[in-house]
């Protein structure tokens, strides 16, 4: 006898549970995106914002008889590179001097003069020299002593062989434009609206001798004006020549 195998029907409840489980599995698999691990990156530290143009200050030095022997009006901006005590790396700091916080002093001699500006832990010393033969003066030296919060110790930048701000005795040197004075590899000084007279002061600034930057600004409108004048002259000459030719074309009957 061949045994008869009877099919056993799966209960409808079990079928419903199986379908429900498959549906939930597919839904979860479709909705949940794969997890992507993004490697952590360290962003570079933000560089300090550069300040705008500095405020213009007025400074003077008096001699033993309390007469003014040096006059200076200028805005000053310092650009310094140094090793940061917090990061151990070389950083650059740009600082403006604030005239209302600056204390000034100095000295005057027949052929040399100094102007010393001090604000908090910053001291800036200008040294001027006069050539008595040519009656020409110039900025011959500049020294900066600074102790900023992020410095490991006080630093000093010095250069005694400069040749900036060249002027004539009894006259002032003027440079209204921003000008950068390179002092050392790690220190430069930006001047704004500068006028200085370290010798031959007679109560106030003498006649100003302008720097090359200011002279170039004055030269441009002069060149443009001259070009326009030449153009007008050419038009007038062309008109006159054309008029004379038209008259010469008529014959007397």
Automatic annotation (TrEMBL):
Keywords attached to this entry: Cell membrane, Disulfide bond, Endosome, Glycoprotein, Lysosome, Membrane, Signal, Transmembrane, Transmembrane helix
Positions with biased composition (Pro residues): 45-54
PROSITE patterns with a match to the protein in the record: LAMP_3
GO biological process: establishment of protein localization to organelle
Membrane topology: Single-pass type I membrane protein
Cell compartments where the protein resides: Cell membrane; Endosome membrane; Lysosome membrane
Ranges of biased composition (kind: Low complexity): 34-44
Keyword Cytoplasm attributed: no
Residue intervals of the Lysosome-associated membrane glycoprotein 2-like transmembrane domain: 220-251
Signal peptide: 1-29
Record GO cellular component, one term: late endosome membrane
Segments of this protein annotated with the region Disordered: 34-59
Pfam families, per database record: Lamp2-like_luminal, Lamp2_2nd
Start and end residues of each Lysosome-associated membrane glycoprotein 2-like luminal domain: 54-201
Chief place of localization: membrane
Transmembrane segments annotated in the record for this chain: 218-241
InterPro entries for this protein: Lamp2-like_luminal, Lamp2-like_TM, Lysosome-assoc_membr_glycop
PANTHER family noted in UniProt: LYSOSOME-ASSOCIATED MEMBRANE GLYCOPROTEIN (PTHR11506), LYSOSOME-ASSOCIATED MEMBRANE GLYCOPROTEIN 1 (PTHR11506:SF27)
Protein name: Lysosome-associated membrane glycoprotein 1-like
Organism: Sinocyclocheilus rhinocerous
């Amino acid at each position: 006898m061949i045994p008869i195998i009877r099919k056993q029907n799966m209960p409808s409840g079990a079928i419903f549970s199986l379908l429900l489980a498959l549906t939930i599995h597919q839904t979860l698999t479709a909705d949940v995106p794969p997890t992507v691990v993004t490697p952590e990156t360290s962003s570079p530290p933000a560089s300090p914002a550069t300040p705008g143009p500095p405020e213009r200050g007025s400074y003077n030095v008096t001699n033993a008889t309390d007469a003014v022997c040096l006059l200076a009006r200028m805005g000053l901006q310092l650009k310094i590179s140094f090793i940061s005590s917090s990061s151990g790396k070389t950083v650059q700091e740009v600082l403006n001097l604030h005239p209302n916080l600056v204390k000034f002093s100095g000295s005057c001699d027949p052929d040399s003069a100094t102007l010393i500006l001090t604000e908090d832990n910053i001291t800036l010393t200008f040294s001027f020299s006069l050539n008595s033969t040519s009656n020409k003066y110039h900025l011959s030296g500049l020294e900066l002593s600074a102790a900023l919060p992020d410095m490991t110790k006080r630093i000093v930048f010095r250069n005694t062989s400069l040749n900036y701000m060249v002027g004539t005795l009894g006259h002032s040197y003027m440079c209204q434009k921003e000008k950068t004075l390179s002092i050392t590899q790690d220190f430069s000084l930006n001047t704004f609206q500068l006028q200085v007279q370290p010798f031959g002061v007679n109560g106030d600034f003498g006649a100003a001798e302008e720097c090359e930057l200011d002279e170039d600004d004055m030269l441009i409108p002069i060149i443009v004006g001259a070009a326009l004048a030449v153009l007008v002259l050419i038009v007038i000459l062309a008109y006159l020549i054309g008029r004379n030719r038209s008259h010469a074309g008529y014959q007397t009957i």
